[in-house]
Design a protein that fits this description.
The protein is α+β, with helices and mostly antiparallel strands and 544 residues long. It has helices at 4-9, 13-17, 21-38, 40-43, 73-84, 103-111, 114-117, 124-129, 143-156, 158-162, 165-181, 186-203, 213-225, 235-238, 252-268, 270-282, 289-297, 307-338, 340-354, 369-381, 414-418, 453-456, 467-484, 525-529, and strands at residues 87-92, 95-100, 391-392, 397-399, 402-404, 409-412, 436-439, 442-445, 485-488, 518-521. The longest helix has 32 residues, at 307-338. The chain is globular. The structure holds protoporphyrin IX containing FE.
Length: 544
């Protein structure tokens, strides 16, 4: 065996000329393969002298795989950004990965060149074998994705979401009323509330409570989705050819887990869709995204055009929308209990407007700039999707003298963009005033500071289609919590506050680690204001 250096020093053009044609035919491809692994930045630079994006030096074959941090990679990527710049290139075996660390770069590439930056890396295991090929977030760019996004847009665009405001406010009040009664279950009540919003919009299903079968089925499907680890990380995802091997190779649980994934895929997509179709036949369906799309696409023979796209987008919005929204609301509670002065300021702004006589509504947003700023700072401080979702580049591209090769995975480093010191000084501090100017002592929005909503929901043709829905539902939950409760840390046996860990968890959606919070009603009037919730007959979103 040659060591790398011996191999290259023993190789010369003279020796090539002495080789037989057959040897050459075998030798040249082998050389190209090894050289590609070892020297991609030097040997394969574009003739116009474009270079690959800079990044940490890798090793042959593995590339940078062995250097990848086991968790919370956004910190590692931020460190690389400080060393190598706004575009960093790494290689995981044969796969090029390009990390975009600045907002302007993400806009230049993912948004402005959306035609070639909008696909997704393949997830062979989940999509092909596990049955999750319906999921919008995994689809490559193409007709199926475009139809799903068109359907999502129809029900989730900004004016449409305004029509849901009354329902979203009602869900927030139900959650807060439940927290008043059993505060220790606050996370569950928040989850029931975000789950209720999506179930009603997507399927016209009213969530009955903790034991709601639709929520249980969807939550267990989401959990089962991860039974074989982080999507994209399994060897079959890295080398799809391995999927052709018999499943027993991966251990005796593997086949069972794949089957569980398949049945969970059905449980979160086709099962609720079939239930709505049955209700439609029986005349009991409540207007929803699914019922409307079926009505529009049903053919004379009873079959439905775009059936997979319809159950695909409806199933996706549950798992894409609930965890992310819950994690943001939990991050907000953590921010409030660790920053009591900011909490008080937000409450006094609410008190001045509401005078203790009513609960907030979404139309109050413009009159509450400080509360708005708390919301935006929550999105920025602890972005719940810290590395966004990976995009996939479909053609070679060049950017500022760099060659970005086709088939690269492109990561928008949300965490780094949200902690960019040039835009957000002292980025680790939770400081809503960074978004405000004070005119005659009154806060107004500073239009010169980049709105974190422009980053948190991704970019270009893959931007989160649920962002208007998410912003409204999270904002009203935050404002209602602030109106109703003083939120504080519990005390330990020595009377010291037990503060939450500010290091959040790992995963596609990063959320606070388990923590406790004391919810103290802010006035005697709060139980009265919440006494009608949950109401005897619930409101419906106005899905048209
Ligand atoms: C705080 C809450 C949320 C955050 C931070 C968030 C963030 C994101 C991000 C970063 C992406 C990937 C964008 C990209 O690839 O550039 C995404 C995709 C998506 N989100 Fe959200 N999201 C949230 C809530 C929601 C809600 C409430 C819904 C539905 C009602 C939703 C539905 C989706 C869907 C369907 C996709 C896949 C889009 C695609 O692949 O084309 N999200 N979201």
């Amino acid at each position: 065996m040659f060591k790398d250096s011996q191999f290259f020093s023993s190789f010369s053009l003279d020796s090539v000329s002495q080789l037989s044609t057959v040897t050459l035919l075998l030798f040249i491809p082998a050389f190209i393969f090894i050289a590609r692994q070892a020297l991609p930045r030097l040997v394969f630079a574009d003739p116009r002298r474009l270079v690959y994006p800079p990044g940490p030096k890798g090793v042959p074959f593995l590339g940078n795989a062995h250097q990848m941090a086991p968790s919370r990679r956004w910190y590692q990527f931020a460190d690389w950004a400080s060393r190598y710049g706004s575009v960093v290139g790494i290689r995981i075996m044969r796969q090029t990965v390009i990390i975009l660390n600045k907002y302007e770069v993400a806009v230049d590439l993912l948004t402005k060149k959306g035609a070639i930056y909008s696909s997704r890396p393949k997830q062979t295991l989940g999509s092909l074998y596990g049955g999750w090929d319906f999921a919008t977030s995994q689809l490559p760019y193409g007709d199926e994705l475009v139809s799903q996004r068109r359907f999502a847009y129809r029900f989730l665009n900004a004016p449409e979401v305004t029509g849901y405001h009354a329902f979203l406010a009602e869900s927030a009040r139900i959650a807060v009323a439940r927290i008043l009664r059993t505060p220790e279950n606050f996370k569950q009540w928040v989850h029931m509330s975000t789950g209720r919003n999506i179930m009603m919009m997507a399927y016209g299903h009213e969530v009955s409570g903790e034991e709601d079968e639709w929520i249980k089925r969807a939550d267990s499907a989401v959990q089962t989705r991860f039974v074989l680890g982080t999507p994209g990380a399994h060897p079959i995802d890295v080398f799809p050819i391995l999927g052709k091997l018999p499943f027993w190779i991966w251990g005796k649980e593997f086949k069972k887990n794949i089957e569980a994934m398949r049945s969970s895929a059905y449980g979160i997509s086709q099962a609720p869709y079939e239930a709505v179709r049955k209700q439609m036949r029986e005349g009991t369906a409540v207007h929803s995204m699914v019922s409307k799309l079926v009505e529009d696409n049903i053919k004379d023979d009873g079959t439905v055009r775009y059936e997979k796209e319809i159950y695909g987008i409806a199933g996706t919005i549950y798992f894409a929308g609930t965890d992310t929204s819950n994690a943001t609301i939990e991050a907000f509670i953590v921010a409030m209990i660790t920053h009591p002065d900011i909490q008080k300021k937000a409450q006094s702004e609410l008190d001045e407007l509401l005078r203790g006589q009513r609960l907030p509504v979404l139309d109050d947003r413009d009159s509450l700039p400080y509360v708005q700023a708390v919301f935006k700072e929550t999105l920025r401080w602890k972005p719940v999707v810290p590395l966004g979702l990976p995009h996939f580049l479909t053609e070679n591209d060049e950017y500022k003298g760099m060659l970005l090769p086709a088939r690269s995975i492109i990561i928008g480093n949300t965490w780094n963009m949200m902690h960019d010191e040039e835009i957000y000084p002292l980025p680790l501090s939770f400081d809503p005033t960074r978004f405000l100017l004070y005119k005659k002592n009154k806060p107004v929005f500073n239009p010169d500071i980049l709105d974190p909503e422009e980053i948190a929901f991704g970019f270009g043709r893959r931007i989160c289609p649920g962002r208007h829905f998410a912003v409204s539902s999270i904002w009203i939950t935050m404002a209602t919590l602030l109106t109703a409760f003083e939120m504080s840390p519990p005390l330990d046996s020595d009377g010291k506050p037990v503060l939450p860990d500010l290091e959040f968890g790992d995963g596609l959606a990063s959320r606070p680690k388990p923590f406790r919070c004391v919810f103290r009603p802010r006035s005697d009037n709060i139980p009265t204001l919440l006494s009608d919730y949950p109401p005897a007959s619930m409101a419906r979103p106005l899905v048209r």
